[in-house]
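hi!! sorry for the late reply, been swamped w classes. u asked for the two structures so here they r. pasted raw, havent cleaned anything up. first the sequence of the first protein and right below it the tokens
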Amino acid sequence: FKNINDMCGHEFGDKVLTTISRLLLYMAADKGSVFRFGGDEFVILYPHKNESEIGSFSKEIKNQVSKIKKIDSIEVRLSLSIGAATYSECESIIKIIDIADKRMYNEKDLNRKKGI
């Protein structure tokens, strides 16, 4: 995301965030609630789902984001990193977010190594 802001400016970066947030809101409409956590990070509370369903939903989000090719007639190549955690892993919402955050950063590191 830093590259988008650096190359195209913060105003365009805000448009990218708005585009992604609208997509997440649409995709999660009947599944859960979407919140902007800070910067370019979002949290989706996806209640009563198992790890398999969460994995499928995560893949579909990535697939849909990758289909975004232009924003305001500017060509873009978007990807994202997702970290997921379930309530069964711990009982504290703070801990769940911490686990998901660490997993997201692990995925970001893997994507950087792959050149994504």
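now the second protein. again sequence first, tokens right under
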Amino acid sequence: MRGKVWAAAILCAGLGGAAAAQDITVIGEVHDNPAHHAAQARIVAGMAPRALVFEMLTPEQAGRVADETPREAAVLEELFGWAESGWPAFSLYFPIIEAAPEARIYGAGVTRAQAREAMEANAAGGGVLPEEELRLFGLDAPLPEDEQAAREALQMAAHCDALPEEMLPGMVRIQRLRDAMLAHAALEALEETGGPVAVITGNGHARMDWGMPALVARAAPEVALRVIGQTEEGVPLPGGFDEVLSAPAAEREDPCAAFR
């Protein structure tokens, strides 16, 4: 993580006083939908953020961008090692960076090693985030039984009902860790740049009931959030959003074919 731990600043000074409207704007997506990324770029261009937080980048990857680094697609794609990341094409995401050329780039991604640790350990964020932040984000305590069951059901559905049931608690721990990493990065970006901050992430992490916005609200209630979700073909998004945009569904192969 870059710089000092933001949590100390929150506890001591409330991020420097009263927060301004829309300090953090969270913009969800279906990862492979080009229309969603085009909408993110338009929103980012309109808000002129001082910081961009990406679920798709780890803090280490984002830290490779220096002040003198050219904001060129080929340069950044190579610098991030995007081709090995497993995310959709960088050409979908670069227009978002291009829309805010002066914004500082932050990464909130969880590495494979960190995900494996969360899967195998009996805690969502041990060894990844400071103990103080685990408490602030509520990762030091189990979820309510009904929420745990709902999250496990979503993980099963997202993996085409093909996961062994014993894997589901670990998958939920990874999801909670990803939410917390996003919240950490967004609050760190707000403290270091003064905001506004734009967060680019999947709809599941953007949901207001238990995703990243809920953790920000829990840890720093004075921070003003706006949360935008993006769906396809008008299908309702669960979890609550301030605004939901819709676009045609992207052309894609059957995601469950690999599980058959």
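hope this helps!! also noticed smth abt the second:
Confidence is low (pLDDT under 50) at residues 1-5, 8-20.
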